[in-house]
Amino acid sequence: MQDQHDNGAETAFRSARRQLAGRCRTVTEARWFALTVFAVILTNAALLGVETYPGLAADWHHWLRLAEHACLAAFTVEILLRLAAHVDRPRDFAKDPWNLFDLAVVLCAFLPVVRENTTVLRLLRLARVLRTARFLPQLRVVLVAVARSLPGTLSFLLVGGLVLYVYAMVGWVFFSHEDPQHYGSIGRAVLTLFLLMTLDGIGDAVHTGLEISRWSLLYYASYVLLASFVLVNVLIGVVLTSLDDARATEQDEPSRRGPRAAENEDRGLLLQRIATARRALDDLEQGLSRSESGAEEGGVRSVGNDDNCYTAQPSGPRGTP
Question: pLDDT by residue (tens digit) across 180-214?
Fold first, then answer.
């Protein structure tokens, strides 16, 4: 009976947890909830902009503090509702990186060290503005694409750094004496070539190089072709490939959530049926125990009546001694 009671309590707890998750999920998935959170994020961004004006910050210091606390309270309620919406499946909450980002941004505001450091607190408040990506699908796709392009971008930076170093050394060898302002050291040469990668000032650089040597034209032409056209196009190709992958992932996400939601719904129905079957078995067991106890009491009564009959029975038939 104790095991049955524990099973019943556990089933009731799971049912209550599913009901809580369902109600909170209904709130968090509502359009008005998303629009409200988005408005709070924009309000937080506007408050950060107002604080950059010393006069306004001094005159409205008290109200700005109240508005900041109100925004923090709104973000805290939001993350609590999102946590409660995943109370029946906590792993799904941790699988979404945006949920972890939101949780980290909100929790950092309550840390003692962070709250005392004004600069760090402002940076964390600025990080809340990035949460707009959750409510803007196109921006979320771009951020995911940038994150996925980082490995390819690192490879591009290595190749670009090697090209810059080689051309900077060549420029230092040939132009350091005649043009020390741009090629006087390896650092200045790298900075000059990095700015020339955007083709800004390439005309002046070519004219200055022609005054030094005609071979400078080959130097600048090969550098522009390799750095400005080849490497930049490679970087653009890496970013575009990552952007296509991010879009495909964003389009596949609803189809993945559909079977998962159906699976969770089927699991909830199955658990409800199991709970109903357990209650029916408990009722049947109680009915059997009552019928057995009633049968035992009836047997005892019948035995007592038989004894009385035996004692009241006459010793023999009528007319016999």
Answer: 888 888 888 988 888 888 777 888 888 888 888 88
Query: Per residue in 233-284, pLDDT tens?
Result: 887 887 777 777 777 776 765 555 544 544 555 666 676 677 677 777 777 7
Q: Which residues contact 263 (CB under 8 A, 6 or more apart)?
A: none
Q: Cα–Cα distance between 176 and 186 in angstroms, integer?
A: 9
What DSSP line would sit under 261-320, residue for residue? Answer: HHHHHHHHHHHHHHHHHHHHHHHHHHHHHHHHHHHHHHHHHHHHHHHHHHHHS-SS-TT-
Burial annotation 124-162 (CB, 10 A radius, 16+ → b, else e): bbeebeebebbeeeeebbbebbeebbeebbeebeeebee
- Largest Cα–Cα distance of the chain, in whole Å? 161
Query: Per the confidence metrics, is the pTM higher than 0.85?
Result: no
Enter the tokens of residue 163. Answer: 């090209």
What is the DSSP-derived secondary structure letter of residue 179? -
Give the integer Cα–Cα distance in Å for 42 and 159: 40
- Interatomic CA distance for residues 264 and 286, integer angstroms: 33
Structure tokens at 56: 């306004």
Ordered alpha helix ranges (H), the chain: 2-28, 31-50, 54-59, 61-85, 90-95, 97-108, 112-116, 118-127, 132-135, 137-148, 150-175, 180-183, 186-196, 202-212, 216-223, 232-312
Q: Do residues 99 and 93 make contact, with C-beta atoms less than 8 angstroms apart? A: yes
Q: Check residue 29 and give its pLDDT.
A: 84
Q: What is the torsional sign of CA 217, 218, 224, 227?
A: negative
What band does 169 get if pLDDT is binned at 50, 70 and 90? very high
